[in-house]
Structures are given as C-alpha cells and as structure tokens.
Amino acid sequence: MMEILSIIGYIFLSVGAVFLLLGGLGIFRMPDYYTRVQAGTKASTLGAMSTIIGVAFLQPDWAVKLLVILVFIAFTNPLSSHVLARATYKMGQKPLSKENIDAYEEVDHSTSRKPVTNKTTK
Amino acid sequence: MQTFSVKDFFYSWIILFVVWLGFTATLDIYEVLTGLLVSLVIAYYTYKNYSHKGLNILMPNKIFYTLKYLLVFLRALVVANFDVARRVVSPKLPINPGIVKFESQLQSDFAKMVLANSITLTPGTLTVDMVENTFYIHWIDVTTTDPGEAFTAIAKDFEEILIKIFDK
In Å, how far from its chain's centre is CA B90? Predict the structure, then answer.
C-alpha cells in the first residue's frame, strides 16, 4: 500500500518538475515582458500544484497543511502576476503584438503615468 | 454602524475554525477547544470584513456549484497548461500575443474577483485590469478581437457557474 502511494507521489513530483522546467524555459524563450510573466508565473502553477500533491502522497501526515498551502498559492499567484502586468502597462511598456491588438489602450492612463515620487508618509 | 449580523458572524467563525483545524492537523481535545475560542474572538472582531453573504454561501446547492466550479476550473487549468507547454517547447514559438477585452455580467465584487483570478490562473490568459464590468485580458494566442467571441473563448464556462453561486 505504501509503495503504491510512493509511486503515485513520485509520478506527481516528476510531472511537477517537468512543468516547472518548462516554465523556466518559457521565461527564456518568450519575446516580451507580458508573455514572460505568463510563462514564468503560470506555466508553473500546475508545476507547483503537482509537486505539492506529490509531497502529500509521500507524506500523508502533512496532507491537510499542504492543502492549505495549495489554497494560498491559488489565491496569491494570480494576484502577483496581475499586479506586475498592470503596473508595467501603467509605466508605459506596450505589449508586443504582431497585429497591434491592444484593447487596453482605450483606458485613461493619464493619471497613472506621472513619474513616481517618494512621498513621505505621516 | 452596522448592526450585528449573526449569519455573517457564524460564517466567519466556521471558516476560521476550519482553517485552524487545517493548520494544527489534530483532533486533540485541547487543541480543538483552543481553536474554537481563538476563532470566536477573531471572528467577533473581523466578521464584517470576511463576508457579505454570510451563511447563505454554505447552502447545499451553492456548495454543489462550488465543487462543480472547481472541477471545471481544474480541467481548464490542466488543458491550458499543456497548451502553453506545447507552445514553449515548439521550435517556431507559435504565439500571437495581444490584449483583448470583454464584458462580464457578474454583479458582486467577489464574483468578479474569482473570475479574474481564475482567468489569470489559467495559463495563456492574464487579467491586466478590470474597469467596471470590462475585463482586459492579455492573451498569449489571440484568435479573435471581438469582445463577444473573446468572452466565449475565455470566460463563458466560468461565469455561467459563478452567477449561480454568487449572484442569486
């Protein structure tokens, strides 16, 4: 029984490792900032999740805690990539696009393109 | 000042207690009692920030749709992950990036947040911004710039279930 669990766990771990590797390769190969964010943060979601599930199979005692970590990854991962992409656009970096597909241009960015000054907080 | 809502309070208490059980991962009587007490105190001070729906969200049919949503989402996640992986290893790098937009019918802020996060977690699409009900999505392989068709391709499956969970 334990052996079957170990084998399943190692399969999940291997799949996770492959997807994390592909995520890294994606950062290396993608042409511009936004596509790199895509590859770096998200080709790795399945990688991280699969790795954690694999660990849960190898160490069943930790399963509940690992589930909590999984939920936290699911909540924080999209938030960080969204904020990175949005902030970069607001700083004036246009996405690379063969046919100039950029619907986000229509939004008023005038308030956000001012150079950032360090305000002293009181 | 908002009046004390029993439903919101109990909802926060239950959720916090479940999280406590997850972290301690034991059913030892003292641990459980401590958890009940601690989550009671925290729920009392923070329940207003946790929920706008209260216990309604724990109704059986909503739990059923939540599970269904998880299945639909997991399937989309796996399919899209393989799709992006295929693009990354393919020598020609077959991508056509761009930012498209579409309108969502969702009403509550929380439902829109879940939809935006789901779209971002699904590889290939990334929520750049949301203005009112308009989503701006960075799409790694743009097949259409029409808002209606983009909605069908990216968010239709998610939204149909989210409406049933949150906007009723």
Answer: 31
Q: Which residue has the tokens 């701006």?
A: B136
Whether residue B75 is found in the same domain as residue B151: yes
Does residue B1 form part of some domain? no
User: Same structural domain for residues B105 and B25?
Assistant: no
> Does one domain contain both B52 and B75?
no
Q: Which amino acid is at B139?
A: W
* Model pLDDT, residue A122: 42
Residues of the domain holding B106: 59-166
Determine the pLDDT at residue B1.
Answer: 44
pLDDT tens profile B70-88: 888 888 888 888 888 888 8
Average pLDDT over chain B, rounded to whole? 79
**Closest among B62, B144, B21 to A103, alpha carbons compared:** B144
Report yes or no for ipTM above 0.85: no
Burial class (CB in 10 A: 0-12, 13-18, 19+), B115: buried
| 8 Å CB contact of A39 and B84 | yes
Of B17, B36, B57, which marks where a domain is finished?
Answer: B57
Q: Is residue B23 part of a domain?
A: yes
Which pLDDT does position A10 carry in this prediction? 92
- The residue that leads in pLDDT, B69 or A1, is B69
Measured CB to CB, residues of chain A less than 8 Å from chain B are: 19, 22, 25-26, 29-32, 34-35, 37-39, 42-43, 45-46, 61-62, 64-65, 67-68, 74-75, 77-79, 81-82, 85-86, 89, 95-105, 107
Q: Do A29 and B116 touch (CB under 8 A)?
A: no
Residue B80 and residue B32 in one domain: no
- Is B117 within 8 Å of A75 when comparing Cβ atoms? yes
